[in-house]
Design brief:
This protein is mainly alpha-helical and about 130 residues long. It has five helices and no strands. The protein has two domains: about 60 residues; about 70 residues. The longest helix is centred in the first third of the chain and has 41 residues.
């Protein structure tokens, strides 16, 4: 087989293997939780207790997204990419770093324009009512 075709073949195979591996990994990670909930629910008679049990196993965050924190992280990732491009790689990485940094600045500004915690929303409403 020609050596020039090996790299594209490995690239295509990797593009298939990675999503399948992640799917299998997530399936087996959640399998034990589902079996545990099933066994416990068989022994419970009250449907309210089953709902409480499901809420306990639910991993989703109840907190809203903190855009300010994410914005600061993104800004510094962009600055790191920009400096890496400036020192080692070249113009392309400098452009990518500047783009990521500007996305972080936009996210940070969005965090200040749109308050997201309950206290911040209450304070914003109180400030508006005072005016």
């Amino acid at each position: 087989m020609d050596q020039n075709i090996i790299i594209p073949i490995f690239g295509m195979i990797t593009g298939i293997i990675i999503p399948v591996a992640v799917f299998i990994w997530l399936y087996y990670e959640g399998k034990d939780k589902r079996e545990t909930v099933l066994e416990i629910s068989k022994n419970l008679d009250n449907s309210d207790k089953i709902e409480e049990l499901l809420k306990i196993f639910e991993e989703r965050k109840k907190e809203p997204i903190d855009y300010r924190r994410n914005g600061v992280i993104t800004i510094f990732v962009g600055l790191g990419l920009y400096l890496f491009g400036y020192l080692a790689i070249g113009q392309i990485l400098k452009g990518v770093g500047a783009l990521v940094c500007l996305i972080g600045i936009g996210t940070l500004i969005a965090g200040y324009l749109y308050p997201n915690t309950g206290k911040e929303l209450t304070d914003a409403v109180d400030d508006f009512e005072k005016k």
